[in-house]
Model the fold of this input.
Amino acid sequence: MAIKLATIFFSMILVNNYVLVQFLGICPFLGVSKKLDSAFGMSCAVVFVMALATAVTWPIYTFVLVPNDLQYLQTIAYILIIAVLVQLVEIILKKFMPPLYNALGVYLPLITTNCAVLGVTISVIDEGYGFAESLVCAVGAGFGFMLAMVLFAGVRRRLEDAKPPKCFEGLPITLVAASMVSLSFMGFGGIIENIFGAV
Amino acid sequence: MSMVTAIIIVTVIGFIGAAVLVVAAHFMHVEEDERIGQVSSVLPGANCGACGYAGCADYAKAIVGGAPVNKCVPGGENAAKAAAAIMGVEAGDVVKRKAIVACQGSLDHTEDKYVYQGVQSCAACASLYKGSATCEYGCLGYGDCVKACKFDAIIVSNGLARVNPAKCTGCGACEQACPKKVIWIRPESEKPVVMCANHDRGALTRKACTAGCIGCMKCEKNCPEGAIKVTNNVARVDYSKCTGCRICMNQCPVHAITIPKVV
Done:
C-alpha cells in the first residue's frame, strides 16, 4: 500500500505533472510565475484547494452521486464545490495572510476555474482510486504544480535579462521557454514505475 | 424521478456550501476602519512608494492612523484634498516634483568606447569600464529608468533617456534605478537646469561629449544674482537665488543649460 501511494505521489509530481505533462492549469502557470514569492504562495493555495476539493468531492461522488445513478452530475457538482472551497480559502487568506492575499490578486478567485483542480478531482475517479489514494494523488498533483511554478519562476527571471529578437519579446519567448521546461519533464516518463517496481 | 433527485442533490450541495461560506465570513471577518477603504479609493493606486509607505493601501492605513495627507506625489493636490476631507484635517501644500535626466549625451553628441553586447541594463553596462559611452558620467540609454517607471513617463531615444513631464509624478523610482545618478527629482519650475554631470576638465569633457558642460565659468560670471557656480568642473544652479532670467542659458557656449518643460 505504502509503495503504491508513493508511486502515485511521485508520478504525479514528475511523470504526470499536471502543468508540464498534462497541460492543465496553464493560466496561473503563465500568469503568476513572474515572481518567486507569489508563485510559491499561489502553489500553496492550489495544493490546499486540490487536497480539500478531492477530500470533499470523492465522498460526494461515491456516496451521493453513484447510489443515485447521477454520475453525469459530476462536473456541475464539482464546480460548485470547488467554487465554495476557493471562496473559503480566500476568506482565510484575507484574515490570516493579507500580504499573500494582495500578491495573488485576481488569480486567487481564478483557482475556481483552474482546470488542474477540476482535472485532479475527475481523474482520481476515472483511475478508480480509493479515498487515501485520491488524497495522495491530489496532494502530489498540487506539489507537481508547485514544482512547475517555482522552476518556471526561476526560468522567467533569467528571461527578463535575456534580449530575444523583438518579435519574441514577452509572451512568445515565455511560451517557448515553457515548452522546453515541459520537454525536459517528458524525460521522466517511466522512471517512477521502474524505481518503485524494483522495490 | 431521477431528475428531481438530481435537482435536490445539487441544491442541497449549494446550500451547504453557502452555509459554510456564511459561517466562515462571519467568524473570519476582517475588521477594517471604513475610512481606510475611502482613503485608498482617492489615492491613485499606483503603489509607487513615493510617500515612503509600502503601497497605496499601506499609506491609506497610515493616513487613518494619523499620518500627514500630503505625501502622495502622483495624486498631488486632489488626492491630498480628498483624503483630508475624509479625515477632516487640513490638506497642506503639495509641491509638484518632476524627474529630469540631467544629460544631453545622445548618440549625436557621444560615441561608444566599446561595443556593448551584454545584458541590456544600465547597471550591468556601468559595471564594465564605467559604461560603454565615452562620457563616464552620463546616461547610458539601456533603460533601467524606463523599467523602473510605473507611469510610462520615460522613453529612451537616440541613446538618451527622456522624461515626459506630463506623465511624470516625481515618485523617484528612476532616480533610484539610475546607476549613473544622472536623474534628479526637482520641484517643477521654469528655472534653468544644467544638463550635464561630467566632472572632468573642459578639454576632456569636450572629447567625451559635444554637449557637456566644459566649466568655462561664462554662466557664473554673467549671472546677475550670483546663483550659478562652477564646482568640480560643472555648473550648478542655486535655486534659492535663481530668478529664471535665462541669461546663463543664452551665454552657454555648449547649450548645456535648458529650461525643462512645465506642464
About this structure: Chain A has a mean pLDDT of 86. The first helix of chain A runs from residue 2 to 15.
